[in-house]
């Protein structure tokens, strides 16, 4: 720098120009420094302001995140509670159903035990084979080598060919069912009770078993027979048969579907045919055919007469018009035309 740098009067124009240029750059430098400082201050203030503004936003975002997290946790907790509640309800329902099932099974078991206590096991079974089918509640069996008539104990089936009443409702069905059960059985057995074993018609009184199934009970249970002719002490299976009858009545099976008892006279085919015959003949009667098996009544039992006869000649000495299948003197060998009436003339 020249010695006269600050002395403008004694300064050489060249030096003066140089000095002015230097002062100019110093001024520019100063301005630049001032501007840079101002910019730095502004930037610092902006950064500080940015930090200040961002801080609340960060806290708010954190709060939002926390709220969302809480809501999520609450939702998951509710879902878990709902799941646990449903699981609990399911278990309680299963337990209730299990208890109810157990209760039903116990009741069923108790009922079966009660039924078993009623269903006394058969005693003294004796094997037989069929000699002839008569009707629903009567069958002739080969018993101890002889052709013997058996009347089923404690039951009564509708008639199919009775000399007086003829055919009753469900009589043919009862006969067919008995024949079916016995025909399909491998083993047929008879069981006498503790009372009388033979009735006044010389028929054995028994429970009939086909392959372990009591035919008496099947007929009653299916509404093809009613419990009847109860004469103590022949009541071993009475409760069992009464229960079968109760169920058949409840279900309206067979004879229990009729508006009147099956043995009501209005159902009698013989009564109807006799009434028709009387009207058509003007009331004329007296011929043998009017009292025979075609419409007559089986003769009363003669207490002095034997119950079996060698031939029809001998039988007619006691019963001139023959006897029906319900009579103790009846025997299949004397019923040649198989119409249910023996030794008719």
Overview of the structural elements:
By secondary structure, this protein is an alpha+beta fold. Among the domains are: 126-266, OB fold (Dihydrolipoamide Acetyltransferase, E2P) (Beta Barrel); 288-342, no CATH class. It is 46% helix and 13% strand. It has six helices and ten strands; from the N terminus they run αββββαβββαβαααββ. α3 (215-221) packs parallel to α4 (238-251). The longest helix has 106 residues, at 13-118. The N and C termini lie far apart (184 Å). Mean pLDDT is 82; it is low at 274-296.
Write the SSE topology.
Blueprint: H1 13-118, E1 126-135, E2 138-143, E3 146-152, E4 155-156, H2 171-183, E5 188-191, E6 204-210, E7 213-214, H3 215-221, E8 226-227, H4 238-251, H5 269-281, H6 312-318, E9 323-324, E10 341-342
Low-confidence stretches: 274-296
CATH architecture descriptor of the domain at 126-266: Beta Barrel
Shape: rod-shaped
Written as H for each helix and E for each strand, in order along the chain, the element string is: HEEEEHEEEHEHHHEE
- Terminal-residue CA separation: 184 Å
Neighbour order of strands in the largest sheet: 1-2-3-6-5
Under the CATH scheme, which class of the domain at 126-266? Mainly Beta
Assign the CATH topology of the domain at 126-266.
Answer: OB fold (Dihydrolipoamide Acetyltransferase, E2P)
- Could you say which structural class the secondary elements and strand pairing correspond to? alpha+beta
Beta-strand segment tally: 10
Beta-strand content bin: 5-15%
Biggest β-sheet description: 5 strands, mixed, barrel
- Overall pLDDT level: 82
Helix content: 40-55%
Q: What is the count of DSSP helices, taking H or I runs of 4+ residues?
A: 6
